[in-house]
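Journal club side-thread
Mid-discussion, someone asked how the predicted structure for our own chain would compare to the paper's figures. Pasting it here so we can look after the session.
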Amino acid sequence: MKDKIELINKSIAASLLISLGNYALLKLGNPIGPIIFAFGLLGVCYMGLNLFTGKCGFIFQDKIKIVDILLILLFNLIGGYLFGLLFSFTDKELISVAINKISTWSFSFSYFSKSFLCGIIMYIAVYMYKKGTPLGIIFGIPLFIFCGFQHSIANIITLGVARSFNFSIIICILGNLLGSLFIWFISKDIKKSS
């Protein structure tokens, strides 16, 4: 039970750090927002927190239990939405920015592929961090944002800011998961031989 409480706390804390990065993105836009957003994942990795998009590609590699990854996802989503909602009261100007952003999301192959590609970048960013360099995060986070790729936890935060909900979040979660697992799968033999 104590382990599950710690896992939940680390998942909520991770959603807070990503929320702060997403706040900067919504507030500042390009080109500064995507660069500052990297603070969120840097904090998550250095503090050893639980972020779904940073963990899902390591399910097999790190032997993460399915129930644990589902708890991480659930509390990232709950925490992210609530922090986004808080930001909507902190800075009402963000609401229209968030609504405009959400208007581009859809149940489409394009939206799925943007989520899939984000999952690939997230896996590589965290993998590089585990190998001793933050460069994957510093360059990877702005890369996925500038490319318009979709990050499920950032998106739930944006939904909170907009005081709204959109079922396309399910497509985004699946895309992030499958993109992360895809790059893990195709590179696992290469990593073993290097």
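Post-session note: The chain has one domain: 2-193.
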